[in-house]
């Protein structure tokens, strides 16, 4: 008998393979993947700004809500246009933010490792790795600007594909045990 819990298994495997192959392709073309992701981010920011402006105009509950939505939407729309007009500047901005985030997260984890007795080694090790990643990104800023987002996107896609292959869609649902075959009497 066809088990409904395994009916989509073929599609899950196909999707996982596409994700892994796509992630490998992005890693081999990190510059193109970075620029493509920046353009996608730019369009998303622009669309969010326009939608926020429309929301503010259509829902004028109070002048504070109207002006807040209008101003926030205008700032987002302008930011989206700036990113779309010059994706390299957008990539540089996001790379600078990512490098700074790696540094801050690494420093915080190192401080926590010194202060806490529990999980000290793991926190310290992960903190040092984050700190080194931040330094690598910021000290090699020109190279990182054109490749960092593409590399991160490629790694994420490969990770998603591997998780889908290993756990499957059913295994990722909270509160659901993996399907086990049962004997019918």
TrEMBL record:
InterPro entries xref list: Acid_resist_chaperone_HdeD (IPR052712), DUF308_memb (IPR005325)
Keywords for this protein: Membrane, Transmembrane, Transmembrane helix
Keyword Aminoacyl-tRNA synthetase recorded: no
Transmembrane spans: 12-32, 38-58, 65-84, 90-114, 121-142, 148-167
GO cellular component, one term: plasma membrane
A Pfam family it matches: DUF308
PANTHER family given in the database record: PROTEIN HDED
Protein name as it appears in the record: Sulfate permease
UniProt source species: Pseudonocardia dioxanivorans (strain ATCC 55486 / DSM 44775 / JCM 13855 / CB1190)
């Amino acid at each position: 008998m066809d088990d409904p819990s395994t009916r989509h298994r073929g599609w899950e495997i196909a999707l996982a393979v596409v994700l892994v192959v796509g992630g490998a392709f992005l890693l081999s073309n990190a510059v193109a993947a970075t620029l493509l992701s920046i353009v996608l981010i730019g369009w998303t920011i622009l669309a969010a700004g326009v939608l926020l402006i429309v929301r503010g105009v259509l829902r004028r509950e109070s002048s504070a809500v109207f002006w807040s939505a209008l101003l926030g939407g205008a700032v987002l729309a302008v930011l989206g246009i700036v990113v779309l007009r010059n994706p390299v500047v957008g990539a540089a901005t996001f790379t600078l933010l990512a490098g700074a985030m790696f540094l801050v997260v690494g420093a915080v984890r190192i401080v926590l490792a010194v202060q806490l007795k529990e999980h000290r080694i793991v926190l310290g090790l992960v903190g040092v790795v984050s700190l080194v990643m931040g330094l690598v990104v910021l000290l090699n800023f020109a190279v990182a600007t054109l490749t960092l987002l593409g590399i991160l996107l490629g790694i994420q896609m490969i990770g998603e594909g591997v998780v889908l292959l290993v756990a499957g869609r059913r295994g990722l649902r909270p509160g659901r045990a993996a399907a086990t075959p049962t004997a019918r009497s």
